[in-house]
């Protein structure tokens, strides 16, 4: 069976992350429009940088999508088209949008501009896909709350429109972003791009009780309170039923094991979440999903070591989300692997390689020492090495790279140093040993 390779779409919270994504195999990236995307608080892209990013992407034969996916309030309607005009002039390959009114305005003003429907619109069925297709949209990003069977059914009912799904990254505890926690605690609206991630806070449980009027009081025994450190001194009642008490911090989505199935369905694009994540995160996740896609389209069996490598990138653990209701026995060990998984730490960024001397110049990010086993990560391939020596920038032999900001040289036998400026030096260790 010939499988069409789906597009790999990676996050670009900055130009550096965009460049890392392309170097490690992304076909396309997405970045946010200032003021009008759902990462407005952590968006390094100005209009000027969007133009640079779009031009660099097109020069490499890659795609650049601009997220303009807020659910707009009236005060942003009047300025929207004026602010969007310079973005359109840069010719992005698509806008990612959610608000029907804004979509209508864009379609009227720029009818030739491709528009992709954001996951924020919560498309759950084939009828909704067909509706948006009649509105002239070229692609629909399906809701995260769909199973593999439901996605396949939508593909069968809607064979002539592009479909995109998320395969990796953070999950919202609400229905794809329709959450009021951030607005309640901090008066910052998630649908306006200002989410403070209140669901991620470290809540402290305190004991309390209710008086005869139903008012809760601290320091007694029958009720529970929670307090977030970001809101010291403020207590909120946390109710408990017969099943227990629930907090809001979802595990991260990891669906790399489903890449082949999604490709076989004919899903057009597999998307990685993470515009606020580090450049190393973008590079590593992109590299692993690139391999999974290439293996699937080449007819190779799934490499489960990809799941192991991803373990070290999540602090919250992983879930398949809604893709399968029941995980097969052979995957059960991955449900709680964050307790025993191998963690990864970037200890250096690669600067230069002297092939005649086989010396690698490294900008140190974290300490490492002679005798450490490290991984050299490059777009052209990864290498494991046990350090036999470290030289300071002045050429003196040292036993330990002293810390962030220093430059050192280490011996390394690299066969292909192409795109070395995108490389990393990585330490692996088990949580049980750290």
UniProtKB/TrEMBL annotation:
It holds the Pfam family Peptidase_U32_C. GO terms for cellular component: cytosol. GO terms for molecular function: peptidase activity. One of its GO terms (biological process) is proteolysis. Residues 344-427 form the Peptidase family U32 C-terminal domain. Keywords: Hydrolase, Protease. It comes from the Bacteria. PROSITE patterns: PEPTIDASE_U32. It is an enzyme of class 3 (hydrolase). InterPro entries: Peptidase_U32, Peptidase_U32_C, RNA/ubiquinone_mod_enzymes. Its EC number is 3.4.-.-. Belongs to the peptidase U32 family. This is Protease YhbU. The gene is yhbU.
